[in-house]
Amino acid sequence: MKKLDTNYLKEYLKFNICPILIEDLPLDIFDEAIILNNSCDINELNGHYEGAEFLPPNWYRELLKTNSKTMPLLIIKNLNQLPINEQSKFNEILKYRKVSTFKLPPECRIIVSCSDIDNYPISEEVYSLLAHI
Fold first, then answer.
1. Average pLDDT for consecutive 10-residue bins of the chain (133 residues)?
2. In whole angstroms, what is the distance from residue 1 CA to residue 12 CA?
3. Do residues 110 and 76 touch, judged by C-beta distance below 8 A?
4. Which of 1, 29, 40, 122 has the smallest number of CB atoms closer than 10 Å to its CB?
5. What are the boundaries of each domain within the chain?
6. pLDDT at residue 69, as a whole number
7. SS3 assignment, position 110
8. What pLDDT, on the 0 to 100 scale, is given for residue 86?
9. How is residue 70 annotated by DSSP?
10. How far, in Å, CA of 125 to CA of 128, rounded?
């Protein structure tokens, strides 16, 4: 297991060029991150209807409320633990920085965590959207 250089990560996050893939990410280094579990179902991921109104998912509302002094941070946890054909449910967030009709804040940073990537790979389509550091 390689050790994460947190200074390097913080510098990379400043630029917000694309989502970042990090192996064995210690989640306790981020104070106010919104953590989205890989196992969330599509309704939890995309939002839902209440009557005639389409509402954003709970994690999105929490992301908008974060009081981070520097930037909101969304972490998709252990993406590679999903079967490859299910990983694409996160493509809209990773590629277009939105979920359904709701755009992520422009200052939002996205981190994808993974573990044991040699035995549990990330799909090529998803991997192409990430900067692996």
1. 65 82 80 87 86 90 76 91 93 93 91 90 93 85
2. 21
3. yes
4. 1
5. 6-132
6. 59
7. strand
8. 92
9. S
10. 5
* Integer Cα distance of 88 and 116 in angstroms: 19
pTM: 0.86
CATH number of this structure's domain 6-132 = 3.40.50.300
Contact 64, 73 (CB under 8 A): no
Q: What's the residue count for the chain?
A: 133
If phi over 0 gives left and psi between -120 and 50 gives alpha, with beta otherwise, what is residue 14?
Answer: alpha
Half-sphere exposure of 67 (CA within 13 A, CB side): 0
Distances (CA, A) of 51 to 46, 61, 62, 82, 90: 16, 19, 22, 32, 26
Q: Which of 2, 67, 84 is nearest to 33 (CA)?
A: 67
**Joined tokens for residue 16:** 């917000």
